[in-house]
Amino acid sequence: MLIERIKQHFRDSASTKLAALEELATPIAAAVDTVFAALANGGKVLICGNGGSAADAQHFAAELVGRFEQERPALPAIALTTDSSILTAIGNDYSFAKIFARQVSGLGRPGDILIAISTSGNSENILTAIESAHEQDMLVIALTGKGGGRIKEVLFDTDLHLCAPSERTARIQEVHSLAIHCLCDGIDAMLLGDK
Ligand SMILES: O=C(CO)[C@@H](O)[C@H](O)[C@H](O)[C@H](O)COP(=O)(O)O
Ligand SMILES: [Zn+2]
């Protein structure tokens, strides 16, 4: 029984990713162009998410500041999920809804990119981070699922929305992880040529 459950997870994950291939290849390519242009103009990438998506934010930042598969210069990216003093100070003194928004206000500059990750599309602290990014004239790349939730409503036309075609958090996170690796690979390909 356990073996069958595990096999079903693999099947579900594979079929969700195949469905995502059709829907997300074009917006992921647009996201690569957007991030590359921002970096080429001296901008940086700020990334936020909760729970598993906080881990994804850190994973992505690590591959930009460190490296993905190829040797290249360090790229400027910050996961907004890591500084416990900042997170507790903002959470305690303001509210949990502001933990990312206030960091975006402090660190974000026009031309920077906010990568906002939320499987439900409804997390308040991600919605306020997007609002804050818009106030700083930053573009937003949202990674969501479940139809995009409230995030879909607050994005500008100039923003990008990568919505994983699933209602299930785990499957959405698996698509996000794949999308993040595609973004890393695309940025490397643009920087270094298609190796
Ligand atoms: O990783 C998981 C579930 O797979 C959880 O930690 C999950 O990320 C948390 O419940 C988050 O708080 C969900 O937030 P969101 O994706 O809806 O914005
Ligand atoms: Zn998880």
From TrEMBL:
Family affiliation: Belongs to the SIS family. GmhA subfamily.
Species annotation: Mycoavidus cysteinexigens
Misc: The reaction produces a racemic mixture of D-glycero-alpha-D-manno-heptose 7-phosphate and D-glycero-beta-D-manno-heptose 7-phosphate.
Pathway info: Carbohydrate biosynthesis; D-glycero-D-manno-heptose 7-phosphate biosynthesis; D-glycero-alpha-D-manno-heptose 7-phosphate and D-glycero-beta-D-manno-heptose 7-phosphate from sedoheptulose 7-phosphate: step 1/1
Residues the record lists as binding Zn(2+): H59, E63, Q173, H181
Keyword Isomerase appears in the UniProt entry: yes
Chief location: cytoplasm
Complexes and interactors: Homotetramer.
Binding site for substrate: N50, G51, G52, E63, N92, D93, S118, T119, S120, S123, Q173
Gene Ontology annotations of biological process type: carbohydrate metabolic process; D-glycero-D-manno-heptose 7-phosphate biosynthetic process
Keywords, ordered alphabetically: Carbohydrate metabolism, Cytoplasm, Isomerase, Metal-binding, Zinc
Record text on cofactor binding: Binds 1 zinc ion per subunit.
Metal-binding keyword on record: yes
GO cellular component: cytoplasm
PROSITE patterns for this protein: SIS
Cofactor names: Zn(2+)
GO MF entry, a single one: carbohydrate derivative binding
Reactions that this protein is recorded to catalyse: 2 D-sedoheptulose 7-phosphate = D-glycero-alpha-D-manno-heptose 7-phosphate + D-glycero-beta-D-manno-heptose 7-phosphate
InterPro entries: GmhA/DiaA, Phosphoheptose_Isoase, SIS_dom, SIS_dom_sf, SIS_GmhA/DiaA_subfam
Cell compartment(s), UniProt: Cytoplasm
Enzyme type, top EC level: isomerase
Gene that specifies this protein: gmhA
Protein name per UniProt: Phosphoheptose isomerase
